[in-house]
Prior knowledge:
The structure holds two protein chains of two kinds. Helices cover about 0% and strands about 50% of the residues of chain A. Chain A has strands spanning about 5, 10-15, 20, 25, 30-40, 45-50, 55-60, 60-65, 75, 85-95, 100-105, 110-114. Chain A is globular and about 45 Å long. Chain B is mostly beta strands.
Amino acid sequence: GNSVTQMEGPVTLSEEAFLTINCTYTATGYPSLFWYVQYPGEGLQLLLKATKADDKGSNKGFEATYRKETTSFHLEKGSVQVSDSAVYFCALSDGRTSYDKVIFGPGTSLSVIP
Amino acid sequence: SQTIHQWPATLVQPVGSPLSLECTVEGTSNPNLYWYRQAAGRGLQLLFYSVGIGQISSEVPQNLSASRPQDRQFILSSKKLLLSDSGFYLCAWSAGAATGELFFGEGSRLTVL
């Protein structure tokens, strides 16, 4: 079945450091890929998405490129801020069901220190 | 614009007591609705989804049940809570076009003692 694997945290970075959170997936067909973010004490919100190979999703300085050849969707940001401290979830949806069957990775906790 | 609300935000219940968490969506019609559970330090587990009034599908066998009495209302219930039911419960909706885009509520933290 479909699955998502992402690097385990927690990840701790200093402000303005470069961020990479690795994500790989297993899926049949051509899934859509997502990054969701969960700030402390809140629900999840969509950060960015990509729907086909070589697409780049971007938002709030974060980027991720859909790499079909490596089945990866790594999240990057050039300069993190304290306000980026959150849990980041990689996810996929294969669009084959009548509802949104979104498969989430386990989440990666990021702490940015001043 | 669409909004989603769930309550209560925090709940502490003894083992064996009943549970009712409620979720409502505003600003959209015929949404798909979902209940997820997030256990401490773990990812999200889909518990139930609904594509219409009275239509409930369960993803995992468990001590919980769900109901959708109105188009934009989704309720998570239990007759007798177990310690293992503790966790952070998230309601979500999607537009139904299988885009993979989910919109989450603020979450309800349940502690069973």
